[in-house]
Task: inverse folding
C-alpha cells in the first residue's frame, strides 16, 4: 500500500546551527558597552528645533514654554516617534504646539485660548503635558 507521499525532488534542509555564518559585532574591542549606550542616548536626547514660522508665532502670540516643559515635550515626542507618530499636537497648561516627530521640529504654536477656536488637521497623535 502506498502512503501517497513522494520523496523524489525533496531536499533535506541543513541544520541551523551549522548553516548560518557567525556574525561579528559592529563594536570594536576598544569600545565599552557604556560608551555605546551613552552615544545612543545622546542621539535620542536631541533638543527640539523650532521652525521660523513657529518662532514667529511664539513671539507674536506671547506663548511662553518653560525649560521644564520643553524637556518634557522633547521626551514625549521621542516616545511618540517610537510609537509611529509623525505629527503631534502637544497641549500644555498655557500653549498648544504642532510638532513634527519625524523631524523633531515645532511647526506652529499658539496659546491655549487661541487653540480652543481651531481645528487641527494632519496630525496622528496628541500629547498632553502637565507642569
Result:
Amino acid at each position: 500500500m502506498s502512503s501517497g507521499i513522494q520523496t523524489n525532488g525533496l531536499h533535506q534542509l541543513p541544520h541551523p546551527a551549522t548553516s548560518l555564518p557567525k556574525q561579528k559585532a559592529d563594536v570594536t574591542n576598544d569600545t565599552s558597552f557604556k560608551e555605546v549606550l551613552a552615544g545612543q542616548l545622546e542621539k535620542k536626547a536631541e533638543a527640539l528645533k523650532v521652525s521660523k514660522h513657529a518662532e514667529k508665532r511664539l513671539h507674536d502670540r506671547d506663548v511662553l514654554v518653560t525649560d521644564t516643559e520643553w524637556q518634557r515635550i522633547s521626551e514625549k515626542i521621542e516616545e511618540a516617534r517610537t510609537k509611529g507618530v509623525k505629527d503631534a499636537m502637544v497641549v500644555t497648561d498655557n500653549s498648544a504646539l504642532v510638532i513634527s516627530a519625524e523631524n523633531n521640529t515645532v511647526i506652529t504654536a499658539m496659546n491655549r485660548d487661541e487653540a480652543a477656536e481651531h481645528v487641527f488637521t494632519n496630525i496622528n497623535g496628541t500629547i498632553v503635558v502637565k507642569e
In short: Helices lie at 16-19, 33-44, 52-60, 67-82, 112-115. The chain has a mean pLDDT of 81. Residues 47-128 form a domain with the YaeB-like fold fold (CATH 3.30.2310). The chain is about 35% helix and 20% strand.
